[in-house]
Specification:
Blueprint lengths: L1 H4 L3 H15 L25 E4 L15 E4 L5 H9 L3 E6 L9 H17 L4 E4 L10 H20 L4 E6 L13 H7 L2 E4 L10
Parallel strand pairs: 1-2, 2-3, 3-4, 4-5, 5-6
Helix pairs in contact: 4-5, 5-6
Length: 204
């Protein structure tokens, strides 16, 4: 009997762990098929990244191309279930006042809150969308870099297979006062999302 059950363990263990992560926060899988609360298992060769700002437009996305949906306006369980059925990740928006996470203890609390929020909704990571002005050599600049490292470490350890991304300006040259440590942040997260759509003529 042992030899027959053993091959099933690699298949069952991720499902049990993923279900437990939501249920321990008081959430049950909202999908009609429980396996749809599992994170996508495939790593895409490229990313087609969608920022979802509410409504039901997601029903008309080209799901043969979409790889990640960042939820920027209200969690939609139906969207999460459907995205997972198409092999796409669903991630939450991470936005915080940088000054509020300069202190390590406050930063750790914020990071853990985001992990637990993602777990309770069976989400697959976080998109850090800060966009705050940060000066060179400031405490906020160092805190932002630390936030990227600590968020990635927490998500990767507590939600295996999760994705952590960071939105950046189209240029690293302190656009709109965002003098971030771009190389260090790029090393910390899974990838940067370059907001190349936000290029005012005055900055060119």
């Amino acid at each position: 009997m042992e030899s027959r059950c053993a091959p099933l363990l690699p298949l069952l263990l991720p499902l049990l762990l993923h279900a437990a992560r939501g249920e321990e926060r008081g959430a049950a899988c909202p999908c009609p098929v429980q396996t749809l609360c599992l994170p996508p298992s495939l790593t895409p060769a490229y990313e087609v990244y969608v920022f979802h700002v509410g409504g039901k437009d997601w029903m008309f996305y080209d799901w043969t191309k979409v790889t990640t949906v960042a939820i920027f306006s209200g969690f939609d369980a139906a969207l999460m279930c459907y995205a997972h059925s198409k092999g796409a990740r669903v991630v939450l928006k991470g936005d915080v006042d940088v000054q509020s996470v300069v202190e390590p203890a406050a930063r750790a609390r914020w990071v853990q809150q985001q992990v637990e929020l993602a777990q309770s909704h069976f989400m697959d990571g976080i998109n850090l969308d800060i966009e705050a002005a940060v000066g060179n050599s400031s405490a906020e600049r160092a805190a932002l870099t630390a936030l990227a490292h600590e968020t990635t470490a927490a998500f990767h350890s507590q939600i295996p297979g999760s994705q952590v991304t960071f939105d950046v300006a189209w240029s690293p040259d302190c656009i709109d006062g965002r003098c971030y440590d771009y190389p260090a942040i790029a090393e910390a997260v899974d990838f940067l999302f370059v907001m190349s759509y936000d290029m005012p003529e005055s900055d060119l």
